[in-house]
Amino acid sequence: MNPQTNRRTALGWLCAGAALPVLAACGEAAQAKAYPVHFTDAEWRRKLTADQYRILRQAGTERPYSSPLNSEHRAGTFLCAADGNPLFSSKTKFDSGTGWPSFWKPLPGAIDTATDSTLGMSRTEVRCARCGGHLGHVFDDGPPPTGKRFCMNGAAMKFKPA
């Protein structure tokens, strides 16, 4: 066998090994969890705005600093825009400087998390515990007392004043 063939074979195996985690993640995404609130894709499209659908149902994200909820400072509750599930108290909201509404703690039982392996890294995705809608991600660079930063898409939420 010539050296060129050995190199190609080695590179082929290396690429196949690198692809396995990506393919495994795709398989996990296909096995969707059953949530209490569920609709067909067509029903979600009718129920949500185009931006809400793209974010909540397709795990999209909004442009930083584009949400009116960034400047929402009244007392109240942030709800899932898809099903009205209470997610965060305004008491836990803080200015993270990232351009997205951020919180240091969700309400009890409000969210579900999953591993998100897109963009070539592993992150913790935050979903609504009732409908499974994508809300954003949680990071370990938040303020005390939790040290968490729940970085949420404003279009995925609505605000209900107290």
Can you put this structure into words, describing what you see?
The chain has 2 domains: 1-31; 35-161, Metal Binding Protein, Guanine Nucleotide Exchange Factor, Chain A, CATH 2.170.150.20. Helix content is 26%, strand content 25%. It has 3 helices and 9 strands, in the order αααβββββββββ. Strands 3-4-8-7-6-5 form a 6-stranded antiparallel beta sheet, with no helix packed on it. A 3-stranded antiparallel beta sheet has the order 2-1-9, with no helix packed on it. The chain is globular. Mean pLDDT is 85; it is low at 3-31.
Question: What is the topology?
Answer:
Elements: H1 3-30, H2 41-47, H3 50-56, E1 76-80, E2 86-89, E3 93-94, E4 102-103, E5 111-116, E6 123-128, E7 134-139, E8 149-152, E9 157-161
Antiparallel strand pairs: 1-2, 1-9, 3-4, 4-8, 5-6, 6-7, 7-8
**Arithmetic mean pLDDT:** 85
Using the coordinates shown, work out and report the CATH topology of the largest domain. Metal Binding Protein, Guanine Nucleotide Exchange Factor, Chain A
What is the CATH architecture descriptor of the largest domain? Beta Complex
Q: What is the CATH homology-level superfamily of the largest domain?
A: Peptide methionine sulfoxide reductase
| Largest beta sheet: strand ordering | 3-4-8-7-6-5
Largest sheet entry: 6 strands, antiparallel
For the record, the count of structural domains works out to 2
- Fraction in beta strands: 15-25%
In total, how many beta strands? Answer: 9
Shape: globular
Number of helices: 3
Structural class by secondary-structure content:
alpha+beta
How are helices and strands ordered from N to C? Answer: HHHEEEEEEEEE
Give the low-confidence spans: 3-31
Compute the CA-based radius of gyration.
Answer: 19 Å
Terminal CA distance reads 75 Å
